[in-house]
Specification:
The chain has 7 helices and 9 strands. It is an alpha/beta fold and 341 residues long. The strands form 2 sheets. It has a 6-stranded mixed β-sheet with strand order 4-9-8-7-5-6. α3 packs across α5 and α3 packs across α7.
């Protein structure tokens, strides 16, 4: 750390890499579908004894199964790269593994070219966090259901909608109904949007930038408002928040808007993350793209979360990895969400 800022010490030591073997086939453990039939710690690399976990930028474990298939378990530091940057890094690893002369997308850093906004001093005690008993749920939303909702939105508004907007609106409505909050209680949605497209002229290649390049977006409405609003209106709410991104990000980057994200971490708040389009499903080490990419975040209990994935091949649509409602609210939430499936 230099002046409170993290730095990467390029020592040439490489990353922590583990090779492992399993005594079963992937079929015997249902291809790692939930609920997992093996402890997740057996699929992920454990930090070396002499290391501090928070200092490890990247750790990898390759586990080979008796069927010849294998998993790649990865732990990475969000201080260094976001999801798009991480996927780009691993695509470059795949390019080299396939003996290409150089990565298809050349990496770009040039972080110093991006204006650094003024630091906001932290005052007062550290925040306290409530630990929730979130249920782990996996729900597939079909491509047909998403397409029907997009058609409905187009018919009523004359505008296009994205898969992210449609699926996020579905979850927000179902969750508001399931939480059993007072009508005036807020339900909040947070997600991080890539801002690479706003850095043309500052970076030699925005496609190659692999660092963190995100801006948080927040939506907040009362439970009653979300419950009464038609799905099309909730989609418009999310779309409007996304459309304000460029103005808010540029204002923040140049110090014109210091307070950009402040949502209480209570039960009313949920964060969503879209893994389906960051490129993780395109990584190829020489055996073709992975059949399935998914997180192992079952111990995240301080903030409700929803992660969007591509379902295992040959399925299509969106797979939702959900930890966003308590066990006692999971039945109602699932019943509501399956109406959209």
């Amino acid at each position: 750390m230099v002046d409170g800022e993290p730095e990467v010490d390029c020592t040439g030591e490489g990353i922590w890499f583990v090779e492992a073997n399993a005594n079963c086939s992937l079929e015997e453990i249902n291809y790692l579908e939930r609920p997992l039939m093996v402890p997740k710690d057996q699929l992920l690399p454990q930090a070396p004894p002499e290391a501090r976990l928070q200092d490890e930028i990247l750790m990898v474990q390759v586990t080979e199964f008796t069927c010849g298939g294998f998993t790649v378990g990865i732990c990475s530091s969000h201080l260094v790269f976001d999801g798009l940057g991480f996927a780009q890094f691993y695509k470059a690893v795949g390019d080299m593994a396939r003996n290409l002369p150089e990565p298809i997308v050349k990496p770009v850093w040039f972080r110093e070219n991006i204006p650094a906004p003024p630091k906001v001093p932290h005052a007062g005690p550290l925040p306290s966090f409530t630990v929730f008993n979130f249920a782990t749920l996996v729900v597939d939303i079909s491509l047909d259901s998403i397409s029907r909702t997009k058609d409905l939105y187009m018919a009523e508004t004359g505008k296009r909608s994205s898969t992210f907007e449609v699926v996020t609106a579905m979850i927000l409505k179902c969750r508001a109904r399931a939480l059993d909050l007072m009508p005036e209680a807020e339900v909040r949605l947070g997600f991080a949007a890539s801002t690479r497209h706003l850095l043309h002229g500052l970076l030699p290649s925005v496609e190659g930038y692999y660092g963190n390049c995100l801006y948080p977006i927040a939506v907040a409405k009362s439970t009653e408002e979300i419950n009464k609003a038609p799905l099309v209106s909730v989609i418009s709410l999310i779309k409007g928040a996304k459309e304000a991104l460029s103005t808010k990000f540029v204002d923040w980057m140049y110090g014109r808007n210091e307070s950009y994200y402040n949502m209480p971490l209570d039960y009313g708040t949920m964060v969503v993350s879209d893994w389906s389009k960051v490129g993780l499903n395109e990584i190829d080490f020489g055996w073709g793209p992975p059949k399935y990419v998914f997180p192992l975040n079952d111990d995240l209990d301080i903030i409700a979360s929803a992660i969007y994935l591509k379902p295992p091949l040959p399925k299509n649509g969106i797979r939702l990895m959900l930890r966003c409602v308590k066990e006692e609210h999971s039945a109602v939430f699932c019943d509501e969400l399956l109406k959209f499936a």
